[in-house]
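Input chain follows. Return structure tokens only.
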Amino acid sequence: MLGKKEGQYYRQSMLSHLRAYAKYAYIAEENLLKNLLMDGTDLAEREKKTKAKSGEPPSAAWQPWSPDPTTITAYAICYKQSKDKMIWETLRSMIKGNQLGDIGDHDGKNTKLNLKTDSSKALLIFPLVELFHATNNKDYLNLGRVIANNCYKKHFRHKQGLFTPSELHRTANLCSAEPLALLTLEAALINQSEKVPTYAGSNEGEAIPYLRPLKIRPYQPKASHLAYSYATESICDDLLPASSSDTTVPVMAWQNVKKATDKAIVEFPDILKAPAIIEGMVDQSESRNSISEMNVNSKHSYTFNGNLNGAGDLTLNVLKGSHHWSADSIWTTTGWSHTGTYNLIMNVNKSAQLTFNGLIRENQNNNWYYGSGVIKNGPGTAEMTADYSGIYRRNIREVQFGKHKSKTICINCK
């Protein structure tokens, strides 16, 4: 238990932090928060300027984001302890941005709450309960009741007695906050809040509730290294995550290898009955945590779509069939040295074909450097169609013939 002096320090620190966050990072009209460094640098704007130099579009990584319920709860607790009007107005905008209506004046009067909301986000119940404790206005609890009823109807599975995001989810998150949210609301309604544990905002990421596929595929993919909570079945379950933070869809990522000599090899065997598209390929940029080899052995064509960011060579072994790398997909090696060149190596068997429509690049510290070699081995056909004029200079720095009489083309970058 903190004493009066220590408690006041933490309350004042929280107030100062959230006031500054609201003043410099929050866009009230759009209900968005900017990603800022301590010196005020807007990371989205900085990335936009940096990538403009190489002609790349900015990523979604640092774009402004809508305040989540945990952030809203932090502002609600801060207001309860400080009664600060700026905190209230920020909270007011955030709740409006979630289509929950107007929480009214800073003393809890003149509310115009949306009691017809279809929101089923249980986490939004926590800030509403905090508002009730701060103002003693039960209108906030009534809005919490509406959200709780929506949540119960949409997410509670009576047979299992568990909450899941949808009926299609095949596992439940036993750490989900719905039970505590409903219990917190009920305790506030009967004036027994002191008997309920406080929500810490940190129990959502341990267990991941997964969707189940709409179609069952007969494939049994395998991986040499598999980290919790990845699933090899995700490779062929017809489900695509909405973003890198979408935890409702099973994913497969490459676990860190144990030795520098280990490789992450992906097999695409001859199991198709028709052409297939592999979408959403992505790599981690860390050393030895990327795909180093892809073996394609199928009479039906594979089309690969996604951006791989390796730390060394990438070898594509095409044993049979005609296969494609999409035009809007990129392979980038982030491994770089003054003396070494990392290569895209295409080994194509007789009568096989690989059409590489994407870009091949070498990158370090957001700048393009010399390198990114291209090696083609084997009697099959390898075709490259991408337009490099926006990235590379026209002159070719070096053309060599390896021991297999295969060209190594090292391209001089800007």
